């Protein structure tokens, strides 16, 4: 029954394509749960689900596959179990794992027809984008923030990839703003969450991504002072769990430290000096504060109320840490880290951030607001997720049908005249640092292959590099003219194995010679024929190029504008007008205003139509 109605909507051909596809869903959160339900009910034959997280109480309002009894269980496994009940005949596979783990090889990515990203962070999105490009598998990328949503179709060589356009990076704050001169509530919240809490209950070696070392040399003395202050802080940890603990900590961070800052006259020429908070005065008023104040999360607390929540949460965290320490024998010392859903850490961050705000004459925030700001919470709206997940599936139909000309980037927004808008796909950005780099695959035997096997055997012998070259893994050069010593070392020394990426640069210094563009090596497993006994021993190579490619040359720097007889047809698709076109196909962007007509024929695909203004209407 269900199959026949799907067939009526999609047509026989598309229904068959859907049924025989093997797809990967990365992320089983807000969009992921909706998408899994859609994929299962549309009849996708085989669906693999990866998610590294466990289910949290706060997920239940929108991640509808999960119920209260699933809290703390794996998202991927529960999502699979629940979705399987919708259609027992669909093959579902779940992995409670990080998609960036090496166990997910390029070969494995390659085994999928389409991959769907339903993630919530830049690093994982970038990683999957790169793997899909390397594996040549189409990717449907999606994301939502509040009422806004976006679906992007990515296909190697045909469309923009995720990194073809620069992405906004999360906001960071200078260390001195956080530690010495806060001027906004967020500065106090980041201080409490990423400095104070780790100093007292964590490792103390705070590597919070939100706080950036300040390059300004004028602040060198201040930074040295801050280091000393951190050292004093570590001493305070001894007082955790004692009756005196909260007094010692309070008197240091809201007394001694503020006093020191106050005395740095230069700092307050254009700012209001901070004020000390008096421990004795606040401590005497403690008995008059209702202990239930911490549960009133929508009101802004008074200084006395913040003090009471500070004392209470500090003691709860201290006791927890002591208990953990008692349970651990040997190994890594236990730590407590911030989690917006861990009420003890949230109370501590809210109260100490507010006390700091009061000391610096900054507005205080309710616990509810602190939770949003400290947890980087962007309101998640179930309907936006559901619509976005639906659009992902509609776009995947275009990909399955190889109809990239009609695939779209789709936007959901509330501000415009329409809720759903779309744009034709852009061709790849020729300057993209990710997808414009030529890739080669090299098969290695990780146990024996050395840097020399790669440099001499593959780059020089097989690919014909003759001048100077360098070879790097992310963040580290492993070979260049100055580190010949590394040639005899095994690639495994740097953790290079199946799935690793290396960059090759042509460093030849010769004005007469054309330099090659940078290329990327992807390490793959040795194919059976090269590793089994069928191969003659003398033919065995620990590193071997899988397929020869032509490596383009770097464009020569133009000294003066030369008149060109013809517009260059080979500049990566750049037309003379400066508008990028896709090579060797009809211009995707010119399809933008094409009006397509809804069809009700049984064998015709579902209707996803543009009108003249580029918005999508969905008919059936
Ligand atoms: N590297 C990764 N590998 C696998 N899954 C990931 C990875 N990074 C993020 N995820 C998963 O992607 C999903 C994103 O879903 P969503 O945006 O709804 O976030 P959430 O964590 O469920 O919700 P919230 O952040 O509001 O608590 C999460 O379930 C998260 O665990
Ligand atoms: Zn790109």
From TrEMBL:
<dbReference type="InterPro" id="IPR042449">
    <property type="entry name" value="Ub-E1_IAD_1"/>
</dbReference>
<feature type="compositionally biased region" description="Basic and acidic residues">
    <location>
        <begin position="583"/>
        <end position="594"/>
    </location>
</feature>
<keyword id="KW-0547">Nucleotide-binding</keyword>
<protein>
    <recommendedName>
        <fullName>Ubiquitin-activating enzyme E1-like</fullName>
    </recommendedName>
</protein>
<dbReference type="GO" id="GO:0046872">
    <property type="term" value="F:metal ion binding"/>
</dbReference>
<feature type="domain" description="Ubiquitin-activating enzyme SCCH">
    <location>
        <begin position="306"/>
        <end position="371"/>
    </location>
</feature>
<dbReference type="Pfam" id="PF00899">
    <property type="entry name" value="ThiF"/>
</dbReference>
<keyword id="KW-0862">Zinc</keyword>
<keyword id="KW-0067">ATP-binding</keyword>
<dbReference type="InterPro" id="IPR000594">
    <property type="entry name" value="ThiF_NAD_FAD-bd"/>
</dbReference>
<feature type="domain" description="Ubiquitin/SUMO-activating enzyme ubiquitin-like">
    <location>
        <begin position="442"/>
        <end position="522"/>
    </location>
</feature>
<dbReference type="Pfam" id="PF10585">
    <property type="entry name" value="UBA_E1_SCCH"/>
</dbReference>
<dbReference type="InterPro" id="IPR023318">
    <property type="entry name" value="Ub_act_enz_dom_a_sf"/>
</dbReference>
<feature type="domain" description="THIF-type NAD/FAD binding fold">
    <location>
        <begin position="10"/>
        <end position="434"/>
    </location>
</feature>
<feature type="binding site">
    <location>
        <begin position="59"/>
        <end position="62"/>
    </location>
    <ligand>
        <name>ATP</name>
    </ligand>
</feature>
<feature type="binding site">
    <location>
        <position position="164"/>
    </location>
    <ligand>
        <name>Zn(2+)</name>
    </ligand>
</feature>
<keyword id="KW-0479">Metal-binding</keyword>
<feature type="binding site">
    <location>
        <position position="51"/>
    </location>
    <ligand>
        <name>ATP</name>
    </ligand>
</feature>
<dbReference type="GO" id="GO:0031510">
    <property type="term" value="C:SUMO activating enzyme complex"/>
</dbReference>
<keyword id="KW-0833">Ubl conjugation pathway</keyword>
<dbReference type="InterPro" id="IPR045886">
    <property type="entry name" value="ThiF/MoeB/HesA"/>
</dbReference>
<feature type="binding site">
    <location>
        <position position="432"/>
    </location>
    <ligand>
        <name>Zn(2+)</name>
    </ligand>
</feature>
<dbReference type="GO" id="GO:0016925">
    <property type="term" value="P:protein sumoylation"/>
</dbReference>
<comment type="similarity">
    <text>Belongs to the ubiquitin-activating E1 family.</text>
</comment>
<comment type="subunit">
    <text>Heterodimer.</text>
</comment>
<feature type="binding site">
    <location>
        <position position="75"/>
    </location>
    <ligand>
        <name>ATP</name>
    </ligand>
</feature>
<dbReference type="GO" id="GO:0005524">
    <property type="term" value="F:ATP binding"/>
</dbReference>
<feature type="binding site">
    <location>
        <begin position="120"/>
        <end position="125"/>
    </location>
    <ligand>
        <name>ATP</name>
    </ligand>
</feature>
<feature type="binding site">
    <location>
        <position position="161"/>
    </location>
    <ligand>
        <name>Zn(2+)</name>
    </ligand>
</feature>
<feature type="active site" description="Glycyl thioester intermediate">
    <location>
        <position position="176"/>
    </location>
</feature>
<dbReference type="InterPro" id="IPR035985">
    <property type="entry name" value="Ubiquitin-activating_enz"/>
</dbReference>
<feature type="binding site">
    <location>
        <begin position="27"/>
        <end position="32"/>
    </location>
    <ligand>
        <name>ATP</name>
    </ligand>
</feature>
<dbReference type="GO" id="GO:0005737">
    <property type="term" value="C:cytoplasm"/>
</dbReference>
<dbReference type="InterPro" id="IPR019572">
    <property type="entry name" value="UBA_E1_SCCH"/>
</dbReference>
<comment type="pathway">
    <text>Protein modification; protein sumoylation.</text>
</comment>
<dbReference type="InterPro" id="IPR028077">
    <property type="entry name" value="UAE_UbL_dom"/>
</dbReference>
<feature type="region of interest" description="Disordered">
    <location>
        <begin position="557"/>
        <end position="620"/>
    </location>
</feature>
<dbReference type="GO" id="GO:0019948">
    <property type="term" value="F:SUMO activating enzyme activity"/>
</dbReference>
<dbReference type="Pfam" id="PF14732">
    <property type="entry name" value="UAE_UbL"/>
</dbReference>
<feature type="binding site">
    <location>
        <position position="435"/>
    </location>
    <ligand>
        <name>Zn(2+)</name>
    </ligand>
</feature>
<dbReference type="InterPro" id="IPR030661">
    <property type="entry name" value="Uba2"/>
</dbReference>
<feature type="compositionally biased region" description="Acidic residues">
    <location>
        <begin position="607"/>
        <end position="620"/>
    </location>
</feature>
